[in-house]
Design brief:
about 375 residues, alpha+beta, Gyrase A, domain 2, four-stranded antiparallel beta sheet, 15 helices, 8 strands, about 15% strand, elongated
């Protein structure tokens, strides 16, 4: 292997380790040199993979990379990867998530219907809420599957995470689900395709959710306060206070008001609750927006590992978990971020020495800002 490496790189140092040969070389000027070495027929025939990592150099005027080798057996065939036996847990979790979403809508809108003595359209309301939220959830994951084929990165089908509402407990206002987790089956060769696979699905889901929220904003539930007893008004205000609220929602409300999408509303004399399409859009914005944050099991966690090393990935994941745990609606997701092993769902790349295109750094910065605008505002900060 050393002789083969000398044909492609300028060797700086080499050693044998218990895990195999380790080569330190000067970083080649062209990215293509790394790719040609990685695609050598000898490695392909023997299921050997090559890993390139940045190496700190003793001198500032040179750049070093560490070349390592590891064995990777042939991946499952596509038919087996998507067979019933292989994906049974994904199917079970999907069904549980569907049920959790329905329960979430049932308890939330049952409370509204009982408070204001509404009698018509309850079943249609729950169905509309569940249908809209499921569509956004499934399309997000379909985008992962489509992009993994286009970018030649093999991933599993999503593991959905149900978070059902439980009345009388802190999770009463949970979101019903926490989206889904996909796992990369084999290490990706490049960072940029991996970035695309995990960036565009939540971006696409966020756009759909914003559209649904604006559409539903035209048909809110409006109630005049003077027509109901004081205890009903107080209970309704308490209910609306603990419903998820995000900064992006406030921006969209201002936009809907300026463009006359939403009907006039006077908060001093009226009470307003979201239409089920808007409520599904709000939860969709939260789920897709949170996926932009650098949490370990979130899409943003995969994106962060394309940008920074493992040490910073762990620090940012911990901070994300703490922030998400501050709200009634997302505290359980924060706990999952803390305790699900990072190594289980991490997606390493074999070429960590690759320099990402500047556009990906720009998208990453925008991603963090948008994610922050979708974090639910803690209830104790809402006046």
């Amino acid at each position: 292997m050393l002789a083969l490496a000398k044909k492609h790189f300028k060797i700086y140092n080499a050693a044998r380790t218990p895990l195999g040969p380790e080569i330190i070389s000067l970083k080649p000027e062209k990215q293509k040199d790394l790719e040609l070495f990685e695609e050598n027929e000898l490695f392909m025939l023997n299921d050997i993979r090559v890993s390139f990592k940045k190496k700190k150099a003793p001198q500032k005027d040179i750049q070093l990379i560490k070349v390592e080798f590891f064995y990777w057996g042939k991946e499952l065939q596509i038919k087996k990867r998507f067979s019933l036996a292989t994906v049974k847990w994904q199917i079970i979790l999907l069904l549980l998530t569907e049920l959790s979403i329905f329960i979430n809508g049932f308890f939330y809108y049952r409370k509204i219907y009982r408070l204001f003595a509404l009698s018509h359209g309850f079943v249609q309301t729950i169905f509309l809420f569940s249908f809209c939220l499921n569509i956004k959830l499934i399309l997000h994951e379909v985008m992962h599957v489509l992009l993994q084929k286009k970018r030649a990165i093999k991933i599993t089908l999503p593991y959905f995470i149900p978070l059902p509402t439980m009345p009388g407990f802190l999770s009463f206002f949970m979101l019903g689900m926490a989206g889904g987790i996909v796992r990369v089956i084999e290490p990706a060769r490049k960072k940029q395709p991996l970035f695309d696979v995990f960036f565009f699905p939540p971006f696409f889901g966020l756009i759909l959710s914003i559209g649904a929220y604006l559409l539903g904003s035209a048909f809110p539930f409006l109630f005049t306060q003077t027509t109901f007893p004081q205890e009903v008004i107080e209970e309704a205000i308490k209910l609306s206070k603990f419903n998820p609220l995000i900064f992006l929602q406030r921006l969209l409300d201002s936009f809907a008001k300026l463009t006359a999408i939403s009907p006039p509303f006077d908060y001093t004399t009226q009470l307003k609750f979201l239409h089920p399409v808007a409520q599904a859009g709000l939860i969709g914005m939260i789920i897709n927006g949170l996926n932009f944050l650098p949490g370990a099991i979130l899409d943003g966690g995969q994106l962060t590992r394309c940008m920074v090393n493992d040490k910073w990935s762990k620090i940012l994941s911990f901070l994300t978990a703490v922030i998400i745990m501050l709200n009634y609606t997302t505290w359980a997701l924060g706990i999952l971020l803390l305790f699900i092993p990072l190594s289980r769902f991490r997606s390493p790349t074999t070429n960590e020495a690759e320099i990402m295109h500047w556009s990906r750094y720009l998208l990453y910065g925008i991603m963090l800002i948008v994610g922050g605008f979708c974090v639910p505002i803690p209830a104790f900060l809402i006046k």
